[in-house]
Structures
1.
Amino acid sequence: MIDLLLAIIFSGLLFVIFTIFKKVDIDVFQAIVFNYIIAFTTGIIMSPVKIHWTTSITQSWFPGTIFLGFLFITVFNIMGKTAQVNGLTVASVASKMSLVVPVLFGIVFLNESINLKKIIGIALALIAVYFVSKKDSGQVNISSLALPILLFLGAGTIDTSMNFIQHYYVPEEQTAAFSSFTFLTAFAIGIIILLYKLYQKQISFHFKNVLGGILLGIPNFFSMFYMIKALQTKNLESATIFTLLNIGVILFTSILGLLFFKEKLSKQNGIGIIIAIIALFLVR
């Protein structure tokens, strides 16, 4: 359970850091790109076995790192913008309610059980994302829902892919290596996009964005590392792990948002959080 607790803390810190970026005017995309090389380096240091480049690229899990790397650079950017535009709590709930995506994947493709409780839970999860994204005026428009919905779908795809790859292809002693190379491929994709934007003069480079990447990269690595470690726990189903992880992150970030960032939750937002927690228990 210590792995699960650490996964909750490090995952929650990511949303907090994105909120801080807005206050100190750090470019989210640049920080995200540099965060991945820091996360990769952290993984190399943390690996209990020496990582060899030539043998790593021949591992059965390596193609999965390329796919996940593309998803990481895309979804992480969406996560950062959602935290800044819609708020810490909205980003947290939209991301963590994506639990329904791997649950649906398990039902459709892995022949996992389906019952009325799960169906109700999935429906409530979608309702929760709607309510928690509502503004004080009570109005919900496409611009306010677009980012949370994209984050919901993207984070769900990442969770599903990671669960599938780690279950079938990643030995426990290669967890750090798998995590590291996923971050490396994300960095490779991100740096190409960043250099293009710099060449086109669409953005300007500032060293503080590198510092932001360092701040983000270490907890980012450990959030993935401990989530995979938790998923490898015997006698606990992945649905239970995801449920406890997501409930923990929602509560953790909601409390931090209220205490330290003075985020105001409307009645609808509060209802959304309550519905989210109920839904997470139902789909476990």
2.
Amino acid sequence: MGGIMGVDAFSSALIGALDRVRPAVVHVYAVTPRTGQIALGTGVVLDHYHVITTAQVVAPGDEITVKTADGKRRRAECVGLDPLYFLAVLRLEERLPVDPPTFAPDGTTPVGLFVVAVGYALGQEHTATSGIISSADRTVYRPKGRGRGNVPVDGLLLTSAAVHPGNAGGPLVDLEGRVVGINGIPWQGGVSLAIQAAVAARVASQIIDHGFAVHPWLGFSGEPDVIDDIWVEMLNLPYNRGLVVQHVQTDGPGRRAGVEEMDMVMAVGGRQPVTSSGMIRKILSSHRYGDRVPLTVLRQGELIELYLPVEEVPGLEALATGDDEESPMREDDDE
């Protein structure tokens, strides 16, 4: 029997996973020159020159030091922040001699998956807190403030692995040593929020390539529904489910595309069946602002194709400047 002497098989697998990911976990030190304020946190290597961390720790203009697992300190700069996910991307002055970890693809973090939040919690070296994925691919809503509504935040994980001050921005890993998420914040009911690894990688890559990440809005909302198999066959439908539109805003991308109430949105860009508004936004986020993405809609028994413009969610600038009111994020809202 393999494993570490005197350690059970499960613990041995967990220790092995931590050993695999540890070289890619870094300690982040940031000093604000104007005030001298010091912030400590965790980051994870994205590639040989970039690190993902949390915007709770760093900001453009900070004096930033990244300490790698070998104990060496390297200078870095913040090349961009994402106001929606509180992510920051750091670029190091010299190439990191560390292989990036494996980021889990979209859809590979089921509820019940055992995970570990890794980092430098409470300023301690190499901490780990364990739990499971309590809920996968969740959407919560951040208030814009001053009565201006809420902004949907898609692609989140709820986990019972505790996030403490210091390990936010670090990786949430599975027993294979894959990064399945980026540690976010303690939330409520004993669970914490994390960002899906695929979402975090997409946001970071867009910041590196374009200076910002794409966060689209729909201008309509609805509820998922399933179509009876008889109607699927009679109407020759590509899927048996979709999103039934219940409300269309008067001045939004949906209205400009021609979306109407009681339409059933079945596919976006000809891809997989639509099961939520968050799925539509996720597909749109892989495009650029100004693109027009095909939207397959069932209307009165007929399939039609509309073209939805990719537009930035209103109020994002308020989040970027910290102009939103202090209020907990919510789950029960629509766009």
